[in-house]
Amino acid sequence: MWLTQVLINALVLGCLYACIAIGFSLVWGVLNVINLIHGSFIVLGSYLAFGLYQTLGISPWYAIIVAAPLFFVLGYLLQFLLLNRVINAPVLVTLTMTFGLDLILNNAMIYFFKADYRKLTLSPPMGSVSLFHAVVPIDRLIATVAALALTGLLYLVLRRLRVGRAIVAVRLDRDAAVLMGVDVKSIYAVAFGLGAALAGCAGVLMALVYPISPLTSSTFLGKAFVVCVLGGLGSVSGALAGGVLLALVEGVGTTFLGPEHATTLSFVLLIVFLIVRPQGLLGRKGFE
Amino acid sequence: MSEGASEILHLDNVSRRFGGLQALRGVTLGIARGEVLGLIGPNGAGKTTLVNTICGVTPASGGTVTFLGKNITRIKTYQAARLGLSRTFQIVQPFAEFSALDNVAAAALFSQPGESLTSAREAARAHLAFVGLEAQATQPAATLTLAMRKRLELAKALAMKPKLLFLDEVNAGLNSAEVARATKLIHELAAGGITIVMIEHLMKVVLNVCTRIAVLHNGQLIADGAPRDVIKNPAVVDAYLGQQYAQRNAAGV
Q1: Given the DSSP bridges, would you call strands B220-225 and B212-217 parallel, antiparallel or unpaired?
Q2: Per-residue pLDDT of chain A in tens (288 residues, 90 and over written 9)
Q3: Does B95 contact A169 at a Cβ distance shorter than 8 Å?
Q4: In whole angstroms, how far apart are CA A34 and each of A76, A200, A212, A217?
Q5: Which of A39, A43, A46 is closest to A63 using CA atoms?
Q6: What H or E segment, with its residue span, contains residue A167?
Q7: End-to-end alpha-carbon separation of chain A, Å?
Q8: What is d(CA B33, CA B97) in angstroms, rounded to the nearest whole number?
Q9: Domain A2-276 falls in which CATH fold?
Q10: Least CB-CB distance to A180: which of B76, B110, B116?
């Protein structure tokens, strides 16, 4: 059945899209920063997975454990040392700053890794399974489950941990949070660090699905942006809904119109949502 | 004024300037432990600025602020909160989408390092009960009435285990039954040993609750002392209370 195949592909890809978008959404929602480095973080995560697999034979499943703390520290430092200096400036200033940082990181990757497309291929290949008469590669399936797990983990951090509650509180009312004893600048750094960690992990997972090149960073950034608008800023469930919706539209559209129209379709959808439902499917002010 | 040892807060020649506006001019004031100080004065006198200066929201441009023997003049706002300086707002500021319980729990959680989410929620329940909001615990703060939100502010401030509590017009906009209820709560807090500074326009409440009154006018302290003396002070009558109030007061109305 082609329909179940399309649906299952959309679910698999949708969870990965959600994982790409969730860190972007967190940073946007809490810091009001449109983080243009997000796409390059994802690509850097893919290279990390690729490098670890090629040189040390470490499988991407373990690469996540390396990527998460590494990217967290990177993001934390970027926010703490650089972005916190301009965080109260108008949004255009922070946008320019992340744009500049992205140029540096992206061009450094082109310089060091070249712009060639690479592919992480597991050997021996893991094969595929049949789900409801649809064929799903096992590595993709595991990547999907991992993406869901990361998304769920963020949800738990925001709901159950002290630092998570502080992130939500800062998002809701920064001034009130300060007066209760929240050190906003360090919470900003933690939120940005979490966003970067999620991007790095998403990159590791995407290495199994997409070809790797610094040139794909804008594609990832575009997807993250569309997912945030579709699902609505401010919730983990919104990112999931947006991710699945985007993958579904791309999947069905590709089936009928051909793969060359996938991106066009997703941006048409973006524009329709911005006009008809700018808050997204599940947008809300708090972040949990 | 009390001797230095029992003072919880001391302001020495504190001033604050906003561009061309001198909002506070050389305010020197000591607050004794366990005292309930009423801070009164006309609109724009600098009352809220004074509280903001103490809490680090708008740090002093001159002078020193000492809290529990420690110079806190340049303290950051979140550090002041953790030291035990807590305040309510003239304009209530709850996290609109958090439940009443989570609002209070957040205050407990963030002001005391080491507090866990579970223990913060337990403490929050007790504070909600104290201000009579236990029935509204699960309601989003945005759905509470103004009087309830004012009491929620109080519960939040209490959850921070304050050593010194600033109440900024907790009675503004309340009807007389609600004022009576809020006044009773303040009495109970004072009886519990919390030092309180309250900004208040309702003289009935000030005279009922405060053990001492300080009067600000144009950023200057123009009177400071026992409530009965301060309200007879000609400078205070001129600047704030007005002749009518003074005459009624003299007639014993």
Answers
A1: antiparallel
A2: 678 888 888 888 899 999 999 999 999 888 888 999 999 999 999 999 999 998 898 888 889 999 999 999 999 999 999 988 888 888 889 999 999 999 999 999 999 988 888 888 877 777 788 877 778 888 888 889 999 999 999 999 998 888 999 999 998 888 888 888 899 999 999 999 999 999 999 999 999 888 889 988 998 999 999 998 888 877 788 888 899 999 988 888 888 888 788 888 888 888 888 888 877 777 655 444
A3: yes
A4: 16, 17, 24, 15
A5: A46
A6: helix A162-172
A7: 37
A8: 36
A9: ABC transporter involved in vitamin B12 uptake, BtuC (1.10.3470)
A10: B110
Q: Which residue of B has its CA nearest to A169?
A: B95
- Tokens for A232? 């609505």
Q: Do B78 and A286 touch (CB under 8 A)?
A: no
What ranges do the domains of chain A cover? 2-276
Q: CB count, 10 Å around CB of B153?
A: 26
Q: Is B130 on the interface with A (CB under 8 A)?
A: no
pTM for the model: 0.83
- Which position has the token pair 């304050």? B162
Do the chains contact at B98 and A286, CB–CB below 8 Å? Answer: yes
Q: How many residues does chain A have?
A: 288
Query: Do A242 and A277 form a contact (C-beta atoms < 8 A)?
Result: no
